[in-house]
Every structure is written in C-alpha cells, then in structure tokens.
Design goal:
Elements lengths: L1 H9 L10 H11 L4 H23 L5 H6 L2 H15 L5 H8 L5 H8 L16 H23 L15 H10 L7 H8 L1 H18 L5
Length: 215
C-alpha cells in the first residue's frame, strides 16, 4: 500500500483529512497474513471511504443518508463517473471490468468478515493469505487510480468564488446553455458549485491563451 501512502502524503497540505485512510491501510498491511478476512474487510472499507469522500467533494447534491446505504461497487462507480466529468483522461470503461474483480468483496465480507458482523465460533469459512494479498494489491491499484485523478484536479476553495464577480463568464455560460426564463450559470453555481468552479477554470485558461481574459 506504499503507493497510496505516498500519494496521500504528497497531497497532505491541501487534503490533510485523507491522512485518516492511513489508519485503514495500517490494518490492511498488518493482517494480510495473520488475519486475511480482516484485511479483506478493511480493503472494502478503504474503497468505500475513498469513494464517498470523492463523491462528497465533487457533488454537493450527494446525500449522506443515501451514500451510507450504497455498497462498494455503486459507490466506486459513482465516484469514478463523477471524476470523469472533470478529467477526460480517466479511463472509465477500462476501470469498469477491473473494479468488477472486487465486486465479490461484499459477499465475502458477509460470509467471512470478522468485524462488521458478529461472528459465531467456530468460524467455518476462512480466506487464505494468498487471496487477501491479491485483494490488497487490487485495492491499492484502484484506490491509487481514483486518488491520483482526484488530487490533480487542484480545485480552488469554493468560498473564494463570488457569482456576481464573474459577469462575463456567467454571460458566456448562459449563452452556451440557454434555458427559458432561467439563468444556467446561476443554477450551476447554486446546485453544482464544483462544476461551476471547474468550468470557470477552463474558461479562464482559454481566455488567457487567446489574450481576451475578461472575467
């Protein structure tokens, strides 16, 4: 899991809260051999946690109660899909079949997990260290891929953006997305502020390149 550790550490200044996942990584690494099912259960938790955090950072319409009810695969897929809206280099269709490899983690957790569900003894089903090692490696690859794309978005603090200070950008948005008797830019700012901020960055970049930078 060193790749994920290093990535989180490199982005600690802007995204310090992601350091929380190092605790989960500790559990995964500690139990790969000694308690494989705890390792596997923690891998599921890592993917779920990273996915939830990315969704909440990029989609201000996300509902906590809804996210808590979602299992790992829907969460992962929603996070990857949202990331792809901001980063067209994310290979969404390639990630889909890879992610399906760990779709069985929910079933395995239910059958063999030692933490989330009370377990009667003697325990009948056990995972092998070789299998938990495989799951840990796949988990690391998927978590790293999501986080690497998320961290490089470099989104600014939304609180710094004031709608009224961006007249020309708002006008450009409204002309490109006409809605009868409504302002598309205002609706986007209020309902999906992250998307508004990202499109503003792209607009400013294009204007700067053309020499016509007027916000």
């Amino acid at each position: 899991m060193q790749l994920v550790r290093n990535l989180i550490s490199q982005n600690n200044v802007k995204y310090e809260h992601f350091a929380y996942y190092e605790t989960v990584i500790d559990v995964i690494e500690t139990h790969v051999t000694s308690q494989p099912d705890i390792c596997i259960e923690s891998c599921k938790s890592l993917i779920e946690g990273v996915s939830k955090t990315i969704i909440k950072k990029l989609d201000n319409t996300a509902d906590d109660r809804e996210l808590k009810k979602m299992d790992m695969m829907p969460l992962f897929w929603r996070a990857a899909g949202k990331l792809s809206e901001f980063d067209n280099e994310l290979e969404l269709e390639f990630v889909r079949p890879i992610a399906s490899l760990i779709q069985e983690l929910s079933r395995i957790r239910n059958d063999r997990g030692d933490i989330s569900h009370g377990r009667a003894v003697p325990k009948e089903l056990f995972s092998s260290p070789q299998f938990s090692n495989l799951v840990a490696r796949v988990t690391e690859a998927l978590a790293y891929y999501l986080l690497e794309h998320f961290f490089r978005l470099e989104l600014p603090d939304d609180a710094e953006i004031v709608y009224e200070d961006n007249h020309n950008f708002n006008l450009w948005l409204d002309e490109a997305n006409p809605i009868d008797n409504l302002s598309y830019s205002r609706a986007l700012f209020d309902q999906d502020n992250v998307a508004y901020v990202q499109q503003r960055l792209e607009y400013l970049s294009e204007q700067e390149e053309s020499g016509d930078l007027i916000i």
